[in-house]
Amino acid sequence: MPGVYPSVMSDAIADKKRIDQAKADLEKAGVKYVLSCWIDILGSPKTKPVPISEFENLCVGKGPQFAVHSVATFPDLGPADPDQIPIPDLDALYVCPWNPDYAIVFADLFYKDAPYDVCPRMALKRTVQEAADAGYAFYAGLEPEFIVLRYDEGGQPVKGIDDDPLPGEGFRPRRQAFGYDVEYTLDSMPFLADVIEHLNTMGWGLKNVVCEGAYSQFEVDFDYTDVLAMADRFTLLRVLLKEVAKNHGMFVTFMPKPAQGDWRSGAHINWSVQSTAEPGGNLFKGKGGWSELAKHAVGGVLKHGVALTAVNCPTVNSYKGLVARARDFEGGTVTWAPTHMTYGVNNRSAMIRLPQARYAIENRAADMCLNPYLGLALTCAASLEGIQENLDPGPSLEKSLYDLTAEEREEFKVKPLPQNLDQAIKGFAADPLAKRVLGDTMHRLYTTHKQDEWDRFHETVTEWEKHEYLRFF
Question: What is the reported pLDDT for 2?
Answer without folding.
Answer: 44
